[in-house]
Design brief:
mainly alpha, two-stranded antiparallel sheet, 9 helices, 4 strands, globular
Length: about 170
């Protein structure tokens, strides 16, 4: 018997209550804050042709600059994070303006976000002051965006309850 089969048999147990075999498994860690991609590959192509095509596609729909809500498709397709992070990207990396140009977005992608795993990108956008940790106040902008834009929470827009709902936790 091979080593892997022995390992599998060692982890398999019979549950006396129901008489079925159960296999114990470990859930892999899914958030790796220090995970980085291969540095050599990043140097080779900082923005590859597919990424550049995706960026151009979203900016060449008749607009030279995109506002926060218009960044949502780029968040899901390129950044691989929820669409609600679009306005946060704009707020963190382009504080002076309410819009971001294609060259500004490409620069942010190359220098700040491409090297990070998707979960670390979301963390980076939530961490407004680059503290290295999150506090409750870091979530207020995201909660406001979700409460304002999420179709399932539209009933809250018509009441003064929305502000209080966003602060409960």
């Amino acid at each position: 018997m091979t080593q892997s089969k022995n390992d599998l048999l060692a982890r398999t147990q019979i549950n006396p209550d129901i008489g079925l075999k159960q296999q114990s498994t470990q859930i892999p860690k899914f958030y790796l804050p220090n995970q980085k991609f291969d540095e050599a590959q990043l140097e080779k192509d900082l923005v590859d042709s597919d990424e550049q095509a995706t960026i151009k596609e979203h900016f060449e729909l008749g607009k030279k600059e995109l506002a926060g809500d218009e960044l949502k498709p780029l968040c899901s397709s390129l950044l691989e994070i929820p669409i609600y992070f679009g306005p946060l990207l704009l707020k963190k990396y382009n504080r002076a303006s309410q819009k971001i140009s294609m060259s500004q977005f490409t620069e942010v992608w190359k220098t700040q976000l491409k090297k990070l795993a998707p979960a670390a990108r979301a963390f980076n956008l939530l961490d407004r002051d680059n503290k290295g940790h999150l506090v409750a106040e870091d979530f207020t902008d995201l909660m406001s965006i979700i409460l304002e834009c999420h179709p399932g929470l539209g009933f809250l827009r018509e009441t003064d309850f929305q502000q209080r709902y966003g602060t409960t936790g």
